Amino acid sequence: MDTFLISDLTRLMQSNHGPCVTIMMPTHVGGPDQQQDALRLGNLVDLAQESLSNGWLRPSQAREWLAPIRESVSDVDFWENRSLGLAFFLQSGSLQRFRLPMPLEELALVNHRFYVKPLIRLASENQRFFVLAVSQHQVSLYEATEFKIEKVDVTDLPQRLEETLNIEGADRGQQQHLANQWGKGKQASVFHGHGGAKETHKSELTLFFNQIDQILSPILGHQQLPIVLAGVDYLLPIFRKALSYPHVVDAEIHGNWDHSTMSQLHQRAWPLVHPWLQRAQILATQKFQDLSKTDLATSDPQTAIKAAFDGRVDTMFVDINTHLWGKCDQLGQVCASHDELQSGDDDLLDSAAAETLLHGGKVHAVPADQMPCSGPVAALLRY
Fold first, then answer.
1. Three-class SS state of 146
2. Under 8 Å CB-to-CB from 349, ≥6 apart: which residues?
3. How many other C-beta atoms can be found within 10 angstroms of the C-beta atom of residue 76?
4. Strands 297-298, 253-254: parallel, antiparallel or unpaired by DSSP?
5. What are phi and psi of 345, to 5 degrees?
6. Helix (H) or strand (E) holding 131
7. Is this prediction's pTM over 0.70?
8. Would you kindly state where each structural domain of the chain is located, as residue ranges?
9. What pLDDT score does 304 carry?
10. Cβ–Cβ under 8 Å, residues 145 and 128
11. Is domain 125-277 given the CATH code 3.30.70.60 in the classification?
């Protein structure tokens, strides 16, 4: 699986000098279907070559143009590492290919710009979140989406309470001992009150978690992504209190995760954070319904497309499973629309979504049952 970032999406959206070849297809993660997937890719390259030869390039040029993708058809190493979806973006000999953690519709398109609508969910800010797994012996920060999870490399992140506070071998029965706070030579006293060892240990945990917070603050400080805490029951209330990051999800993952896989952690985290991530979508849906009878909301495709090109869309919903084939000019004025794909057609919903994002708007690419209206597009306008 390859990482697909918002920077990748932005770069693809900014490519608007055709011919731009987009090929997408579902793939099999493993098993004996490698040859079948390669054959399907070969068939899609043939379709792209036919489209390129129809008004773009001479047939011999079209075949040469597509050579970088054809090489992938027979690349054994490439097919050894499959995920659920595969996307190719080819422009003037420059190829970008992504093995993606979600199935994609099988298609081959040639146009003035790349087709990106199915990938918006992968790079969208409102689909990303953090997981912070903590114990007395290991601390790990992960960044995740609905489809993947990756460990974040954090320099100097404390791992073991005893080493961090320099208390290995300390006599917990003493009334006081010195803890090496922040790992920089400065010492802090941990006092043993009438609660004895229990209160002492709580004080140590507080110091340990405060140091973790100090290291994470520069990394998390500019973010607004939700974070899910994972750890043993009695640790999490202390850690939650020490953590200064404000976007902590109420629900927690209980247990010791020191020896668990990232996949296991991800499976537990996604159902907890999903309602939080849907807040922005739910609020936007309600706002659209409240404004649906005003000039600040529209479900008319031509109006929404033109507004997107003008930079007037604050938030747009597009049906991720519906195509609106047609052509529009550089100002977003729809020139033609078709029920079936014709040569030179764009998915106008894709164009509108891309223009919305490029102008700083937000896009929710969702299935039909999550659309705030009965049509394939809904837009909240800035003015």
1. coil
2. 117, 301, 318, 319, 322, 323, 324, 376, 377
3. 8
4. unpaired
5. -75, 150
6. strand 129-134
7. yes
8. 6-115, 125-277, 292-381
9. 98
10. yes
11. no
Alpha carbon distance, N-terminus to C-terminus of the chain: 41
pLDDT tens track for 301-349: 999 999 999 999 999 999 999 999 999 998 999 999 999 998 888 999 9
Tokens of 250: 């109420």
Cβ neighbours of 144 (radius 10 Å): 22
Model confidence pLDDT, tens digit, residues 245-274 = 999 999 999 999 999 999 999 999 999 999
Per CATH, the number for 6-115 is 3.30.960.10
Return the CATH architecture of domain 292-381. 2-Layer Sandwich (3.30)
Nearby residues of 67 by Cβ (< 8 Å), 6 or more positions away: none
Q: Is the pLDDT of residue 198 over 90?
A: no
How far, in Å, are 17, 121, 125 from residue 375 at the CA level? 30, 20, 24
Which tokens go with 75?
A: 């690349």
- Give the single-character DSSP code of 139: E
